[in-house]
Design a protein that fits this description.
The N and C termini lie far apart (92 Å). A hairpin with a 7-residue loop joins β1 (163-164) and β2. This protein has 2 domains: 1-30; 32-236, Up-down Bundle (Rhomboid-like fold). It has 237 residues and is an all-alpha fold. α2 (33-55) crosses α7 (112-133), α8 packs antiparallel against α9 (174-193) and α8 packs parallel to α10 (195-236). Helix content is 78%, strand content 2%.
Length: 237
């Protein structure tokens, strides 16, 4: 009997391990290469910063966090690199969730480099707003909240009219869902941190939305010029 119980327990453990392995493989297969890089960067910075704080050996905030005095003294990389430092466990979890849910969709719609460029623009736009509005004594800025706002805006640009079923409060379009999420998030940020942090968070989405709008206009103008030139060439023939 003991041997049989041991065999059954071993079989159950093996089945659980195999099931977890299949779930992980299915999860990893759904991620695009660009999203994997972003998730790995977030996880590495989060774990390294946490380990550095616990051991007192490494301080990533000293080199990557957004601080107005440092940027004015030439450390312009901080306008973007602050987004690689999660502001906490909740910020890391929310950013990872947004990347997993929206990143593959956007990368397949665009390209890997286009996704990275968009995330950099969203982070840089929020960093620039923080640079212009925050005073010299303001706390340093960390967290990928502005990038998350940007991803939500990009989702609206690509799938704004699609209906999202199965929501507790009924089906909504992507645009309506993003608007609801943005309002609730900004209100939470405003009442917990103040007006400027809430504005900085929103600036990421606004910067991303402005970039997508200008890109759309440029593509339309380019397409119209190509059609016009082709018609002129045919008339000349």
């Amino acid at each position: 009997m003991p041997g049989r119980r041991h065999a059954v327990r071993g079989g159950i453990d093996c089945w659980g391990i195999n099931r977890m392995r299949r779930l992980w493989q299915r999860f990893a297969a759904g991620l695009t290469p660009g999203v994997r890089v972003l998730l790995s960067l977030q996880a590495a910075c989060f774990l390294l910063a946490l380990a550095g704080q616990m051991t007192g050996t490494v301080d990533l905030h000293r080199w990557l966090a957004m601080g107005a005095p440092e940027v004015w003294h030439g450390q312009i990389w901080r306008l973007v690199t602050y987004a690689s430092l999660p502001a906490g466990v909740l910020d890391f979890a929310m950013t990872a969730l947004a990347l997993v849910m929206l990143g593959p969709l956007l990368e397949r719609h665009w390209t890997r480099r286009a996704l990275w460029l968009f995330c950099g623009i969203a982070a840089g736009g929020a960093g620039l707003v923080d640079l212009l509005l925050a005073g010299a004594g303001a706390p340093t800025l960390t967290g990928a909240g502005p990038v998350m706002f940007g991803l939500m805006i990009a989702w609206t640009f690509t799938s704004g009219l699609e209906v999202v079923p199965g929501l507790p409060f009924g089906p909504m379009t992507v645009g309506q869902l993003v608007l609801l999420f943005a309002v609730l998030s900004l209100l939470m940020s405003f009442f917990s941190a103040g007006f400027i942090p809430a504005l900085v968070q929103a600036a990421g989405g606004l910067a991303g939305g402005l970039y997508l709008w200008l890109r759309h206009k440029w593509l339309l103008a380019r397409a119209s010029r190509a059609v016009y030139s082709e018609r002129i060439r045919r008339l000349e023939l």
